[in-house]
Amino acid sequence: MRYHPLSDVDRKAMLATIGVQDSAALYAPAPASTLIDAPLDLPRHKSEIEVERALRKLAARNVAAGSVPFFIGAGAYRHHVPATVDHLIQRSEFLTSYTPYQPEISQGTLQTLFEFQTQVALLTGMEVANASMYDGSTGTAEAVLMAHRLTGRRKALLSGGLHPQYAEVVRTISRLAEDSVADMPPDVDCVEDLIARIDDTLSCVVVQTPDFFGHLRDLTPIADACHRHGALLVAVFTEAVSLGLLTPPGAMGADIVVGEGQSIGNTLNFGGPYVGLFATRQEFVRQMPGRVAGESVDADGRRAFVLTLSTREQHIRRDKATSNICTNSGLCALAFTIHLTLLGEAGLTRLARLNHANAVALADMLAQAPGIEVLNQSFFNEFTLRLPCDAAALVERMAAKGVLAGVPVSRLLPDAGLDDLLVVASTETNTPQDRAAFVSALKESL
Amino acid sequence: MTGLRFTKDHEYLRIEGDTAVVGITDFAQQQLGDIVFVDLPKVGKKVTKGSELAVIESVKAASEVYAPVTGEVIEVNAELGEKPALVNESPLDGGWLVKLRVATPDETASLMDEDGYASFLKTL
């Protein structure tokens, strides 16, 4: 259809079709107070260059991530991404490829997905991984649904250390599926007794490590308790770099490991697109959502890649699909794979150490500041501060001084009475100067 | 091949004592093509005639196998986990799917016998 503004004739025809006299009669049911009776007071049209100027002025009011000392995390992390990553993903073969419907033709895409899965399985300590979910939060919801399918039970227990938005996504999906969710209250100190809550009605327990407040958790006793009751342990992470240093969830008995891959290869992207990582045990592979790229040989015996176990509705399982995930974050997964390949195993460990060291240095400095309490006994690159004041207001005051200090817990848990808590993340991008700026802005803003 | 009964959905049933061996017919496996996975029910599952008993996944599609009669699953063919292709190779023998304890023996009477099924196939 070509676009033309409506003419009076069009309007008359439409009104006649629905059987009203004029547009006043059309809007008659709406209360008069909600109707605008005068032309909108909008500025006249502007030229392109004028619009550009106006928008640039507006954009300059933002404090951009790379422009000031930056300590924001809570599920989205600023890391250095080598220029090579961006260069390679922009190759048109990768950039323009959509979900492979005739997958065997897209050998390059399939091979990178295969490498991606291999990396995710190695990182998480699991046997199989799929070829990327949308992001960590929806991946977590998919893990819960998978646990329901595997156990025949329909109730999940969510740890109070789970990222609040991840918990919300699980609750939303569960509501639609009429499954039930048991929530633990937000766990600031990492002392919640999940094990006491595990019984034979649960399909799974969902635990994050490092958790939303930055605490590291030993999943082993929780996994044992789950297995005693026939439930599965779903282990979640929001910071993939942590896997370069910490015991992988698979080694602690997790049955399904899900997390966010944004930290590796991907920038903050204004909150998305991100890339979900999803791994499990071989015995559960048939109930895994999404799809798996596999290695095979072609008619001439040469190494070739195929899409196998495509348990999605677009492929052979159709209405029997394990999930309705319809595409994946393929380009983000590719960026992840390229970055991780460039780092290598030793490089990832070094990067993780650098993150941890920077965060420890910052926490040590902050612990000296009067009135500030660092709540964590242990952490990776993120920890929680208890402040003598409202965290959200403090963050605003520090932003005005050119430091983005972190995420106030009240922003994600507005009604939890945790207004004095601030989640602070530090990565390899933070310099000693950044830390000094943080401490000095904090002292001036308290 | 005596004592075999068939459904219009191409399942077969073979009475062995008080149990019935259930699988899909040779015609069905040919139609499906290479079978890559068989999703079998748990032992102890109770099924009613016509309800979903198993899912067979071939390279073309995933298809339901319906229970030919009402009963309880008392054994599943565990060998199919490693070798789903047995369904292609010998659907009536090594490629059987489940054994049912038949709840209402009368139901088998309504199923086609071998000649009936052969005539039915000609109408397709």
TrEMBL record, chain A:
Reactions it catalyzes: N(6)-[(R)-lipoyl]-L-lysyl-[glycine-cleavage complex H protein] + glycine + H(+) = N(6)-[(R)-S(8)-aminomethyldihydrolipoyl]-L-lysyl-[glycine-cleavage complex H protein] + CO2
Entry-linked SUPFAM superfamilies: PLP-dependent transferases
UniProt EC number: 1.4.4.2
Known role: The glycine cleavage system catalyzes the degradation of glycine. The P protein binds the alpha-amino group of glycine through its pyridoxal phosphate cofactor; CO(2) is released and the remaining methylamine moiety is then transferred to the lipoamide cofactor of the H protein.
InterPro entries found in the cross-reference section: GcvPA (IPR023010), GDC-P_N (IPR049315), GDC_P (IPR020581), PyrdxlP-dep_Trfase (IPR015424), PyrdxlP-dep_Trfase_major (IPR015421), PyrdxlP-dep_Trfase_small (IPR015422)
Protein name according to UniProt: Probable glycine dehydrogenase (decarboxylating) subunit 1
Coiled coil: none
Pfam families named in the record: GDC-P
Transmembrane parts of this sequence: none
Biological process per Gene Ontology, one example term: glycine decarboxylation via glycine cleavage system
HAMAP family: GcvPA
Keyword tags: Oxidoreductase
Family in the record: Belongs to the GcvP family. N-terminal subunit subfamily.
Organism: Methylocystis echinoides
The gene coding this protein: gcvPA
Subunit structure: The glycine cleavage system is composed of four proteins: P, T, L and H. In this organism, the P 'protein' is a heterodimer of two subunits.
Gene Ontology MF annotations: glycine dehydrogenase (decarboxylating) activity
Positions of the Glycine cleavage system P-protein N-terminal domain: 2-404
Automatic annotation (TrEMBL), chain B:
UniProt key word Protein biosynthesis: no
A GO cellular-component term linked to this record: cytoplasm
Cofactor(s) it depends on: (R)-lipoate
Gene3D superfamilies: 2.40.50.100
All copies of domain Lipoyl-binding, residue ranges: 19-101
Record note on cofactor: Binds 1 lipoyl cofactor covalently.
InterPro entries: 2-oxoA_DH_lipoyl-BS, Biotin_lipoyl, GCV_H, GCV_H/Fam206, GCV_H_sub, Single_hybrid_motif
Classification via Pfam families: GCV_H
Oligomer and partners: The glycine cleavage system is composed of four proteins: P, T, L and H.
Family (UniProt): Belongs to the GcvH family.
Protein name: Glycine cleavage system H protein
The encoding gene: gcvH
